[in-house]
Amino acid sequence: MASDVLATTLLACAVALATTLAVHVALQKQSSERLAQSTSNSLPAHDVPESLRVDAFITPENQAAFAHNGVFRGCTNVFAVLDAIHDYALQFLAESEWANVSDASVHITVLKPSAAKRGPDGRCLNESDDDDNDDGVRHAQWKLPECVDPSNSTEIVLFPGVNPLTFAPDKIINLSPSGSPTGNPGKKQVVVLPGALVLGGTFDVSDGSVYLGRNVRVEPNVFIKGPAILGDGSTLRSGAYIRGDVVTGQGVVLRGELKNALVLDRAELGHPGYCGDSICGFQSHFGNQVTTANLNLFAGAASGNLTVDVGGKRYDTGRTKVGVVLGDWSQLGCSAVTDPCTLVLPNTIVYPLSRLRKGVYGPNEVIKNKPMERGVLEIAPLRRTRS
C-alpha cells in the first residue's frame, strides 16, 4: 500500500517536472523569437511602438526649439538618437562657420598656445612686444593655459565679446594623432563665443573640439573632453566631468559625469552623479547623486544588446549601453538609480532613493519609494558591544 502511494507520488512529481521544463523551453523560444523579430534601430517608423519614439519623450515643439535638433534627423526611435550623437557633434564642429577662421580675421582672435610667445606672467605676447616692461601692453593680452600638444595643432578661437580678464583656462590637452590610440588627426579647437566666462578648467581635444556657446560659465576644476558642445547660457559647476560626445541646449546646468549624452534646454544635472548614454528632455532634472547605470551588470558573461519589452514584444535596442531616456519635465530624486535601458516618459517624478528596473514609466506619474509604509525597510535592535 505504501509502495503504491510512493510510486504515485513519484509519478506525479515527474509529470510536474516535465511540464515545468516544457513551459520553460517554450518561454525561452518565445522570448528568442520576439527578440529576433525586432531590432529597433532598423525598424521602419510605422513599426516602432509609440513609447520608443522620440516624440513620446520630447515634444515636437521642444525639438524644434533645440539648437541642435539636427541630431534627431532620420531617427525613428530614441536609441537611434543615442547612436547619432557622436557623428552629429563631429559634423557640427567641422562645418560651423567658425571652424575655418584664420589669423587674418580682424574680428576673431586665434591663439595657438603650444607655439605662442609668452610673457613672464604666462600671457600671450604679440611679436612686437619686447622686454621694455610695458605692463599696459602685456596685461592686455590673453592668458594662455598649459598646453600638452605634441603635434602643435590646437587653436583657441575667441570671438569678440570674450574678456581677456575672464578667460583663464588651466590646461589644454591634444594627444592626437600619435599620443592617443583613439585620437583623430588634424586641427582641434576650443571655440569660445561672446560673453563666455572661462574661470579655469582642463580641455582635452584629443578626440574632438570643444565649443562653448554665448555666456557659458566654466568654473574652476572642470574637465571637458571633446567632442563637446555646450549651449548658450549653460553653467559647468566646479567638478563637472564631461567625457566626450556631449551635446547640450541652452541654460543647462552640469556638475556630474556625463558621457555620450544629449541634454535639452534648461535641464539641470547640477549635482554629483552619472549620466551616460542618456537623453535628458526639456527642463528635466537630476537630484543629487543620481546614477544612470548604462551597462548590464553581467556584461562580461552576456555581452549582447540590451532589450526592452513594450506591448508584449521584446525590442533589441541595437546597443550594449543605454542609460536613461528622461522625458520633458521629468525628475529623478536624490540618489535614485536607474537600471540600463530605463525610459521615463514626460511629467514623471521619481522619489529619492528609488531604484527603477529597466522598462517604460509614465507619463504623468509619481513613482514613490516608501519603505516605512510598505515594510521594505528592516529595523533591528542595536546590539551593545561595550560593557
Summarize the topology:
Blueprint: H1 2-37, H2 54-57, H3 60-65, H4 78-95, E1 109-111, H5 135-138, E2 146-148, E3 154-158, E4 171-173, E5 188-192, E6 197-198, E7 202-204, E8 210-212, E9 217-218, E10 223-225, E11 228-230, E12 235-236, E13 241-242, E14 246-248, E15 253-254, E16 257-263, E17 268-269, E18 274-280, E19 285-286, E20 291-292, E21 307-310, E22 313-316, E23 324-326, E24 331-332, E25 337-338, E26 342-344, E27 349-350, E28 355-356, E29 359-361, E30 366-367, H6 371-374
Q: What's the quick description here?
A:
With 387 residues, this protein is α/β, with parallel strands linked by helices. The protein contains six helices and 30 strands.
Mean pLDDT: 83
DSSP helix count?
Answer: 6
Radius of gyration: 27 Å
Low-confidence stretches: 23-38, 127-132, 134-140
The best one-word shape is: globular
Count of domain modules: 2
Query: Could you describe the largest sheet, including whether it forms a barrel?
Result: 19 strands, mixed
Number of strands: 30
Proportion of helical residues: 10-25%
By secondary-structure content and strand pairing, the structural class works out as alpha/beta
Indicate the proportion of strand residues: 15-25%
N/C terminus separation:
63 Å
Give your account of this protein's structure:
The chain has 387 residues and is of the alpha/beta class. The chain has two domains: 36-77 and 277-296 and 304-375, UDP N-Acetylglucosamine Acyltransferase, domain 1; 96-266, no CATH class. It is 19% helix and 24% strand. The protein has helices spanning 2-37, 54-57, 60-65, 78-95, 135-138, 371-374, and strands at 109-111, 146-148, 154-158, 171-173, 188-192, 197-198, 202-204, 210-212, 217-218, 223-225, 228-230, 235-236, 241-242, 246-248, 253-254, 257-263, 268-269, 274-280, 285-286, 291-292, 307-310, 313-316, 324-326, 331-332, 337-338, 342-344, 349-350, 355-356, 359-361, 366-367. The protein is globular, with a radius of gyration of 27 Å. The termini are far apart.
